[in-house]
Amino acid sequence: MECDRILTMTTVYVALSDRVFVSTEPNGDRLQRPVLEEVSFGSDSDSGSGSGSDSGSNSDTAFEFTLECLAASAAVPNRLFVGTFESGLLRSTDWGETVEHVETPFERHPVTALTVSPHDPDTVYAGSEPSALYRSTDAGETWNRLEGLSDVTSAAEWSFPPRPDTHHVRWVAVDPFDPDRLLVGIEAGALVVSPDGGETWIDRPAGSRRDNHTLSFHPTSEGRCYSAAGDGYAESDDGGETWRQPQAGLEDRYCWGLAVDPADPDCVLVSSASGARRAHNAEAARSFVYRKTGSDSWERLDDRGLPMGDGVVRAVLATTGEPEVVYAATNVGLFRSTDFGDSWRPLTPAWPPALESKRPRSLLALVPE
Known about the structure:
29 strands; 5-stranded antiparallel beta sheet; mainly beta; globular
């Protein structure tokens, strides 16, 4: 549309287990509200490909796949990678209008983590169940396994409680200052760090968490990185080789979502609950978002416009690189803050009631470079 050519658009992808929503919003005031569209990945279960639903549809059409994760780069915001539990890796090059199945060496395994390198939009990392890590340097056309991850000492103890006979890579983060430094979160059992692109691994560095759910590097503060984990929060100043665990004020310590202000490495948001059931099960949900600034204690962000508490599952959080701008998705809607959590506004005029029983799997917010 004409607005795409005139204004820089913020693209927000939200993945639930059975659908993806795309919200487009201009960085300006020409549109009074953002647009939320449902992306349908088709019904051909053999090929895993198909075409999108009608623009603007909020239908309840289910996917053939259980979606696990998303990845995209602000340098190529139209190209979306989607990890599924049953059908491997999917890729779209047109904001989800059409989707193709990508052949990979991990074809038969759930794809549980995806990350695009901040140094090169064609370099993509994929984590699987059982825990293994792969890298592509040609936007998913070919893949190499990064050996040695499953050989670290703690691997014998890895186990995912709902399926205790297995485990998976939950998150991969790439250092924005060093393309070879990787943080890998195993659910559940370890944080593992590679300083050399997967050639060697540091297993369970001092102070690190065991049940890491979301990992992040700060985009402008070299060495700063963060973990939101089922056993609490942790942060590091040396690229993940040692960690500290500031917990004061964090009353709910099953942490899930994580966001850091791009302009302030000491300003952090996490979503958390008292335990997994309270975090993920909509019928029993009771979750909150907390903020920590500098050496201050964690503060729960009550009464700021972001629904929290009973009936709200843990939020997934995302930033765009703009100072103080952060997005949050829960089972009751998609929200945006421009003051890093002091106030929030909904990005959709009405969240479909059918989605209130679901929990968001992944959230991306991209301003094209």
